[in-house]
Amino acid sequence: MKTMKKIILMAVVGMMMAACSDGKDGLSDPESGQVFELSAVNEPTKGVLARSRPLYSQEAVQEVERVNIYVFQNNGTDYIYLKTYNVPNWTKGSTFMRFTVPDNDKLVAGDYEFLLVGREATDNYTLTSPVAGTTKIGEMMATITAPGNESEIFAGLQAAMVTSEGVRVSMQMTRKVAGVLGYFKNVPAMLNNTTVKYLRLTVSNADTQVGLANGVGAVPTGVAYNLIDADLSGQTVTAEGVYSGNDLTAQGVVKVANSQLFGRFLLPVGSVTLSLGLYDASNNLLKAWTVVDGASSTLNLTANHFYSLGRKVSKGDTTGGGTPDTGDDDSAIDLLKDQVIVLSIDPSWNTIHNLVIQ
After folding, report:
1. Which residue of 23, 142, 151, 288 is surrounded by the most CB atoms within 10 Å?
2. d(CA 244, CA 259)
3. What is the pLDDT of residues 315-355, one digit of tens each?
4. pTM of the entire structure?
5. Are 116 and 156 in contact (CB under 8 A)?
6. Number of structural domains, the chain?
7. How far, in Å, CA of 153 to CA of 62, rounded?
8. Which of 175, 192, 221 is the last residue of a domain?
9. Can you spell out the DSSP letters for 178-190?
């Protein structure tokens, strides 16, 4: 009887070991398999879910659902497109997954570059349709028809030598868009006896295409574009003569009193200027501020950088996520008082810069 129990136990253990090595959990043997370890840089959002994630704070979140690995092989002069692996079962907000190449679709030994692309469930991007044996990796682009159609798109590039023994490739994808947030309070309803109707943040140029391999804008329009174009006329005016602010309670956003909060994604674009202005109903400029980086008003808006006029760390409260540190509390720019306005780039996205408007 003891012998029979031993045999049954050994059989069960053997079945468990076989199940753990069949590749279904992504943990294939690196000595013989071709495995990709894929990661996105941020945690999933806890906010409103939409076609394009609303941008209401500098929280580093993402809603990637579609993930592909584009394979490019070195032909001696460049990396040329070979095939695409569609990564199944990537759920919204995931930050890590292993993908094992099926045995019948493995790569032959050689020098490769892999382009990892992550997208939301739907978006307005058109991606380059690569042609096997023809398309170079630097030709992979994401394109929109016009500024204003941007949502988040992620990509990452990794080179690797594939051998007959197998390969394990670790890849990370980061945003190929920039984020811009404007957080203002006490916007005056009147200036020089004229009613203020519009609040606008204008960039002097915009782009409609970004390189997925390098995150650089490729087709600038040469035309100014309003990143923020807010009609304030539907808001009530307080006893102090300022607009009461846009209502975002339905989106779960908590703001300071009498504040305006707007955010947009945009494709990277270089050598631009940013200006903040208040306008009347006839689009006459009543007051303007120019964004300055140190002594320069020329800016480079870079992929995976978050540009913030004012500070909002957490969309669900005004205390930086409820931390005791007052340094991350909301700080909306007071347009009645502030003469110098700080613009920063959040570290959770990539890099910090301090800019001012004057």
Report:
1. 142
2. 7
3. 899 998 777 777 778 889 899 886 655 566 554 565 434 45
4. 0.81
5. yes
6. 2
7. 9
8. 175
9. EEEEEEEE--BSE
